[in-house]
Amino acid sequence: MIGLIDVSIEYSHGIERVTLAYYRSSGTNSRKIKGLWYPIVGIKMTTGAFHEFPPYINYVLSATTRNGVGTRRWLAKSVFFHNGPDYPAPTMGFSGSRHADSLLKIGKTLRYLYETNQYHEDSSLTPAALNKEIASHRIYRGNRNTQQVNFELLIRDIYHNL
């Protein structure tokens, strides 16, 4: 199961609303916890090099993914497993950045909401629709930046362990 959630993120210029994508883990790979929701960047549309996301996101995924490529329908999440030596991730899959605890808290909240049937199912959320939403040029009410810019700022912070 994959879902979108709107969160508030504090940047140097203020708090911005940002849509994030998460998936529910089956707990079968990379020491992930069954039922916990983990953040993803998007969904790979074709096998090979990254080109389905905005240029900066493609760059980060290429740098954090084995051989810089992914397979079709792969959940692009490597940046959240990328940890610098100074910031070991407290829980695998939530980054080693200052955002790790917040990302984990969101994952636990989504698990609770899912397990208690407090969510809205959207059958129109295809991989292409999810990727489009994450990279949207829309500016949410009260935001200064577009969804894409705010999402890229978050990924930048995570990638550089800021």
3D architecture notes:
This protein is α+β, with helices and mostly antiparallel strands and 162 residues long. It is 31% helix and 20% strand. The protein contains five helices and seven strands, in the order E-E-E-E-E-H-E-E-H-H-H-H. The longest helix is centred in the middle third of the chain and has 16 residues, at 100-115. It starts with a strand and ends with a helix. The relative contact order is 0.21.
What's the short story on this structure?
This protein is an alpha+beta fold and 162 residues long. It has 5 helices and 7 strands; from the N terminus they run E-E-E-E-E-H-E-E-H-H-H-H. 31% of the residues lie in helices and 20% in strands.
Give me the secondary-structure topology:
Blueprint: E1 2-11, E2 14-24, E3 37-40, E4 42-43, E5 48-49, H1 55-64, E6 69-70, E7 75-76, H2 78-81, H3 100-115, H4 127-134, H5 147-159
Antiparallel strand pairs: 1-2, 2-3, 4-7, 5-6
Shape: globular
Mean of residue pLDDT?
A: 89
Roughly how many Å is the radius of gyration? 15 Å
What is the tally of helical segments?
Answer: 5
Helix content: 25-40%
How many E-type strands? 7
Helix-strand string: EEEEEHEEHHHH
Residue runs with pLDDT of under 50 for 5 or more positions: none
Gap from first CA to last CA: 30 Å
Strand line-up across the major sheet: 1-2-3
Keywords:
162 residues, three-stranded antiparallel β-sheet, two-stranded antiparallel ribbon, 5 helices, 7 strands
